[in-house]
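User: Sequence recovery, please. Input:
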């Protein structure tokens, strides 16, 4: 048995080059998970055999089987820490698996053969059934490792052949006897076990190949994403510097500090300046998305008063609102309305919602920002009197580079990233964002965050910085 174990241990050379370490880990994991199922079947066989045969001998055999199970459990505990990277440790584990397989299979063989020998009448349905069950169990659950599976089934085959020849030797029956029928049936069962073992092994190998293909595809996808992110970041940074200079120059020309601008050129300069601002906003949004995908966005969470947050957001966008001739109102909440959040990120989200509401509102309209104390939640709503959002556009509202009106003649421009970024920020606060809209009446976007009660003073609160992933 020592030589046989050593032989199979030397086969460890193949596992380090083509993913066989996964087979070893799968084998050990599955073996540990099914230990009690195996024990239940062995115990059932023992109780039945002890009732009809010699109970002392049967329970002695069962005790040996239990000891082999204990060896497998010990191997499982020792192998749990193996990460699959050390080939020396892997060979040692494989050697112990081979040794345990030999001991376990021989113990089961002895158990089954003793049952067959104790049965004096012809036919050995009970021991053959338990041996068949053990073989099928091995074919199904040992298919991760071809060598170990062949080793176990080879030992089981000895028990099959021993039982097959037992009555032939005992009775020396003529060929017309049912003893020979049982003999040929056992041979057929052996063929069946070999056939299903091959199928289970092939299926497992195919699953491994599929997993490997998926992992390789995942690596290629990640590499492409990283290359895209690096390209996007590089291009965005390279565009931002000259674009800032261009916008500054256009604003300087438009201010007429360098001289009076001819009336015919003012509209052209204005168009160039506005489009420069739109391009700058697009670059900033792209840079932000790139940071999210590169896991570079840091959130500093601390207590924030939702009323103060809304007032600050409205104040920061008041210049844009005055330019469009749109009135912005605020309805603060009563009572304590503290939340935990990153002030700058939440204001960024609020600015996106307010900017969106202003763009889709007519001159002279009103945009209302409201804070409501809803028990355990704080709701912040932005309501406009714009054209509304069609019902069939819900799937596109929070998408990237999508706009409800994507036609070439849409009234307002934009990058199609504002609501997507807002949703990302809101979700990082474990909050929710949604909207209700009526075409021709207006739209209300609302954010709901957890309310914090009995909040400590901000100076006594230790902010928490969290690096968020996309």
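Assistant: Recovered sequence (470 residues):
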């Amino acid at each position: 048995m020592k030589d046989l174990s050593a032989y199979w241990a030397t086969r460890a050379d193949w596992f380090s080059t083509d993913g066989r370490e996964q087979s070893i880990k799968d084998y050990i994991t599955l073996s540990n998970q099914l230990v009690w199922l195996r024990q239940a079947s062995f115990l059932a066989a023992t109780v039945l055999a002890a009732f009809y045969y010699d109970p002392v001998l049967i329970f002695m055999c069962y005790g040996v089987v239990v000891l082999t199970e204990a060896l497998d459990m010990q191997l499982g505990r020792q192998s749990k820490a193996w990460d699959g990277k050390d080939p020396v440790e892997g060979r040692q584990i494989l050697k112990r698996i081979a040794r345990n397989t030999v001991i376990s299979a021989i113990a089961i063989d002895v158990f089954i053969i003793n049952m067959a020998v104790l049965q004096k009448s012809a036919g050995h349905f009970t021991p053959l059934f338990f041996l068949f069950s053990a073989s099928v169990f091995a074919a199904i659950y040992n298919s991760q490792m071809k060598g170990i599976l062949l080793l176990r089934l080879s030992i089981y085959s000895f028990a099959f052949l021993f039982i097959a020849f037992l009555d032939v030797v005992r009775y020396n029956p003529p060929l017309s006897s049912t003893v020979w029928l049982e003999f040929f049936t056992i041979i057929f069962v052996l063929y069946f076990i070999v056939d299903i073992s091959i199928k289970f092994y092939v299926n497992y190998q195919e699953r491994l190949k599929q997993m490997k293909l998926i992992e390789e595809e995942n690596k290629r996808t990640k590499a492409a994403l990283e290359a895209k992110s690096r390209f996007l970041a590089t291009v965005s940074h390279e565009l931002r510097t000259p674009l800032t200079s261009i916008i500054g120059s256009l604003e300087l020309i438009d201010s007429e500090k360098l001289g009076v601008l001819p009336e015919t050129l003012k509209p052209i300069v204005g168009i160039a300046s506005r489009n420069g601002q739109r391009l700058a906003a697009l670059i900033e949004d792209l840079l932000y998305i790139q940071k999210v995908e590169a896991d570079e966005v840091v959130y500093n969470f601390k207590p924030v008063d939702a009323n103060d947050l809304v007032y600050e957001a409205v104040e920061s966008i008041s210049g844009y609102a005055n330019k469009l001739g749109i009135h912005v109102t605020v309805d603060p909440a009563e009572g304590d309305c503290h939340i935990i959040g990153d002030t700058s990120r939440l204001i960024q989200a609020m600015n996106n919602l307010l900017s969106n509401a202003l763009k889709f509102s007519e001159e002279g309209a009103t945009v209302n920002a409201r804070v409501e104390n809803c028990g355990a939640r704080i709701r912040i709503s932005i309501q406009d009197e714009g054209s509304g959002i069609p019902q069939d556009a819900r799937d596109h509202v929070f998408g990237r580079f999508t706009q409800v009106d994507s036609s070439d003649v849409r009234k307002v421009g934009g990058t199609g990233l504002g609501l997507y970024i807002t949703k990302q920020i809101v979700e990082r606060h474990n909050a929710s964002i949604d909207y209700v809209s009526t075409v021709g009446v207006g739209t209300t976007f609302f954010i709901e965050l957890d309310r914090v009660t009995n909040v400590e003073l901000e100076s006594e609160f230790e902010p928490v910085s969290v690096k968020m992933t996309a």
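The two ends are 55 Å apart (CA to CA).
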